[in-house]
Design brief:
About 50% of the residues lie in helices and about 15% in strands. The chain is of the alpha+beta class. It has three domains: about 60 residues, no CATH class; about 170 residues, Tetratricopeptide repeat domain (Serine Threonine Protein Phosphatase 5, Tetratricopeptide repeat, Alpha Horseshoe); about 110 residues, Tetratricopeptide repeat domain (Serine Threonine Protein Phosphatase 5, Tetratricopeptide repeat, Alpha Horseshoe). The strands form two sheets. Strands 1-2-3-4-5-6 form a six-stranded antiparallel sheet, with no helix packed on it. A hairpin with a 2-residue loop joins strand 2 and strand 3. The longest helix has 17 residues. The N and C termini lie far apart (about 50 Å). About 35% of the residues are buried.
Length: about 350
């Protein structure tokens, strides 16, 4: 349960995020100048002279992108034509062999063999092998390699080989419909991809354990909230999403999950307020907006407000008549209204 114990953590160079009972806050910058947005929305700019111990604060009025289902996943390589370093004459044998397989020949089938021959490089090979297998839909190999990489406790992104030769490699994962994130081939990507595999095969408890064990980034929070929601852990979803505002599609998605959790606890007014915030931005991803409409329709139905529910269902129907679950809800609503004579 490390996600709840640690309150402040780094999400990128010079960027930190703080989680408290009040919500989520961000801090950007270094020792000379730093801008902080508190969980309650207050912005504080701190300016100082590094090494002097002097600084002053002015009160006033970054999100990394990520994504995670194999059908939408992609791996990006350095741009063609960019200089690619090669191992020096005195470089370790494992470095030369892996460079040849990964960079020169792109023969990824060699990764398992290299891991066996050079055990100290096994976590790095397993990370690359697992994420590439995940991308191409080789589920059995992906789970086997990702499990090895995750259990090792090592972060391949910090490995000298990755930093020297493959730092530009990234993978894009779809954490949920409409929520994608791009990240380096490291421990967080391994954990999120592995959790997705567990989730897809109804092993929610294992998926939750994996994400809770990761460093508590905002990306991990999105994944964890969806897993909590699927597992019916409504109080945990609510605690994780306290004081959120609609700053991005990922935030909007979390607000929809929060609304669902509130509805399941019969807190209908609070659920609709969360959905109102989730759909406040006109630019919110259409998939998230439709999910919000469906959730609001379910909330109205739980309150017996059938006419309002129908309006939201018709909004979805006008955009996507085949939206998952839509016809079932509309059929049930029609039968209920017919039985009541309305």
């Amino acid at each position: 349960m490390g996600f709840r114990l640690r309150k402040s953590f780094k999400i990128a160079p010079g960027v930190r995020m703080t989680v408290s009972r009040s919500g989520v806050g961000y801090s950007v910058g270094g020792k000379g100048a730093r801008v902080t947005k508190t969980a309650r929305g207050r912005v504080v700019t701190t300016v100082g002279i590094p090494g002097s111990g002097l600084s002053y604060a002015i009160s006033g009025g970054t999100r990394r992108s990520v994504s995670a289902r194999s059908s939408h996943s992609s791996t990006n390589t350095p741009q063609v034509g960019s200089p690619v370093p090669t191992p020096g004459l005195l470089a370790p044998k494992a470095e030369k062999v892996l460079h040849q397989a990964l960079i020169q020949k792109q023969d990824f089938s060699q990764l398992e063999r290299i891991a066996r021959e050079y055990p100290e490089w096994a976590p790095l090979c397993a990370t690359i092998d697992g994420l590439l297998a995940y991308q191409r839909g080789d589920i059995e190999r992906a789970e086997r390699a990702l499990d090895v990489a995750f259990r090792s406790g090592e972060d391949a992104a910090t490995h000298p080989f990755m930093q020297k030769y493959a730092g530009a490699y990234t993978i894009t994962l779809e954490l949920a419909d409409g929520v994608r994130v791009t990240m380096s081939l490291g421990r967080e990507a391994v954990g999120l991809a592995l959790a997705e595999l567990y989730q897809a095969t109804a092993r929610l408890t294992r998926a939750i354990e994996v994400v809770e064990y990761l460093e508590p980034t905002f990306t991990a929070a999105v994944s964890l909230a969806e897993l909590y929601s699927d597992a019916g852990r409504s109080p945990d979803v609510i605690e994780l999403t306290n004081s959120l505002t609609n700053e991005s599609d990922a935030h909007a998605f979390l607000l929809v999950l929060r609304a669902r959790a509130l509805r399941e606890l019969d807190m209908f007014d609070a659920a609709r307020e969360s959905l109102k915030e989730a759909m406040r931005r006109r630019s919110v991803d259409p998939e998230i907006r439709r999910r919000g409409y469906l959730e609001r329709a379910n909330t109205y139905l739980a309150q017996g407000r059938r006419a309002q529910a129908r309006k939201d269902l018709e909004r979805i129907f006008a955009e996507d008549a085949k939206y998952p679950g839509l016809r079932e809800v509309m059929t049930a609503l029609d039968a209920e209204m017919k039985a009541s004579g309305k």
